[in-house]
Amino acid sequence: MTAYEADLFVIGAGSGGVRAARIAAGHGARCMIAEEFRIGGTCVIRGCVPKKLYVYASRFAEEFEEAAAFGWNIPQKPEFEWRKLVSAKEAEISRLSKIYETNLLKSGVEIFEERAEIISPHEVRLTKTGRVISTKHILVATGGGPMMFPAIPGIEHAISSNEIFDLPEFPRRLAVVGAGYIAVEFASIFARLGAKVTILFRASNVLRGFDEVLRENLRDGLAHAGIDIRSGVLPTAIDKTGHGLRLDLSDHGALEVDQVLVATGRAPHARGLGLEQAGVDVDSAGAVTVDAFNTSNVPSIHAVGDVTNRVNLTPVAIREGHLLADRLFGGGVAQVDYHLIPTAVFTTPEIGTVGLTEALAREEFRCVDIYQTSFRPMKATIAGGPARIAMKIVVDGDSDRVLGVHILGDDAGEMAQLLAISLRLGAKKADFDATMALHPSAAEELVTLRTRTARYLRDEAG
User: Does 10 score more than 80 pLDDT?
Assistant: First the structure.
């Protein structure tokens, strides 16, 4: 058999690492996993899961207001209790973390609740006990963490998305620095929970890289929620005062708040793991460089998930971990397909998107057809308010194949997940048109949207 103590040692018990360990163990491999914080990783402990729970909480305020239009009489104004939400969140993520642990143990994976570092291509050291373990393969699945940028005076007074879930007191005045999906999600959550939110960012609009129809409509939706949107403005200094925090701004203004959330990006969590000592290549951002099979330049050391800084999404890490374990111990040969990954942004209004944006499609294809619409959701016809749903279908004008679909509005994420199946199967616009509508629903617009709103022809000579 093997002279190693383990066939696979996984550093990091997040979604990708846990999946790899369980699948490898299912193939008969002897697996060990080390986690220095809490089993479950970013997604379960301080990412996707608690964030979605807070999104649900934030949407009740608007639903209480809408209920009156539908005949509901709420005798007194509902009151929100921040600490009760935090407690409920903690109970749920603790439950999920325990499930992850239980499933690992049922799979026969040995768990070490401490930090592990690589000391050679086939050895890791547990830092608490000092034990050195030999292993045939090492998997780095340590994820990523928030960057506190810009590096301005007083940045130590700000918090990241790690701390925002567990604040001892609800921030009545919140400044959010950044315009990516984490920034806009938390701005949306806290505004609807009752905070006065100001969002500061360098760019001209939110969500760089998303389709323009989503960016423009989301910005309007955030403004309608009462969020103070300041594009082209960043903090230059943060000072602690007797009443909170004072931000000096790049437009020479100032802002008084209770908390400053910095959400300007995330970096791979790879420092201090011993990668360089083992000869593993890392890029300028500190991410582990891997091939199409998630193996580094050192054949026995592999990496999945955010620590590779490729597509930083939980389902991607899970798929990478699964296929890696299949290849190493089950004879698998499949590679991860990174095309047509559906994505959601859990703001209110919500975003769901899959495939190419209009801008990318026009760069790649000779002829691009656009089908676009915006309308009031049925609920708003009685409840009133500014709610809108926006949809865009991007089509290859030569082949009629649907290249991308972009949705803003209720349940947009759910729609994007199902649309991803259609796009992977190569659906054409004619297939959408031939599909019977489900009425009344917002999604029916996707199959009744027959009027082309724009056609773009690329000048080949140019």
Answer: yes
Per annotation, catalytic residue among 157, 224, 339, 439: 439
Mean pLDDT, rounded, for 118-135: 97
| Rounded alpha-carbon distances, angstroms, from residue 194 to 76, 260, 459 | 17, 16, 51
pTM above 0.85, yes or no: yes
Q: Which residue has the tokens 């949207």?
A: 449
Beta bridge partners, 303, equal 140
> 93: closest CA among 167, 40, 19?
40
Whether the CA torsion 8, 5, 297, 306 is positive or negative: it is: positive
Q: What mean pLDDT value characterizes the chain?
A: 96
Q: Torsion angle of alpha carbons 222, 228, 234, 235, nearest 10°?
A: -130
Strand (E) or helix (H) holding 138: strand 132-140
Distance CA 117, CA 89 (A): 31
Known active-site residue 122: no
> Which pLDDT score, from 0 to 100, does residue 2 have?
57
Half-sphere exposure of 162 (CA within 13 A, CB side): 13
